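**Reference record**
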Amino acid sequence: MSEKLEEIAELVALALGDMVQSSKIAFGDLAISVNAIDIVKTLTKLRDVSTLDFDCFIDLCGVDYSNREQRFEVVYHLLSLSQNARIRIKVTTDEETSVPSVTEVFPAANWYERETFDMYGILFDGHPDLRRILTDYGFEGYPLRKDFPLSGFVEVRYDDAEKRIVYEPVKLLQDFRNFDFLSPWEGADYILPGDEKAEQEGKA
């Protein structure tokens, strides 16, 4: 399989030329990185060049590396049925710079781009309907960013008196518990409810 992927890597390099910034075989797939402004041209060539034939759009997702200057990666996965191989394409961007939408090349990318926008706040230039798809209309922030608070910013409930959905600041009814398990074989440094009985039986 690695020989086949190496052959495909050579064909990809030939088809894309200088657009390929890096290329490697990882986790059983060929993975390449390109500049965000070249993503539409890249996917079009991967789809249309007959020796490649990556015509099946599998997935698009975001990744947040909050310590990088360009903190986000957008990762695309394509499948070539004729080659029986997959390819992973990565581009990087920041919070302000949009990535060109690939919905013109692969219409199936529509909802994936909306989900990536909803979860990470990554903007897709040229998307026909870029709005939230998983969270509520009044949702604040982007839940899969590394700096998003665990408790969120607001909580939602239905107010029976007002007969409508209301948004309120998060109110924690109890403190966060201290889960300090260092390994599957070590427990917490406090007695869990019910464990005090086992300790008493052990002493008897």
Helices lie at 2-16, 39-48, 109-120, 195-203. Strands lie at 20-26, 29-34, 56-64, 72-80, 85-93, 99-100, 124-125, 154-159, 164-169.
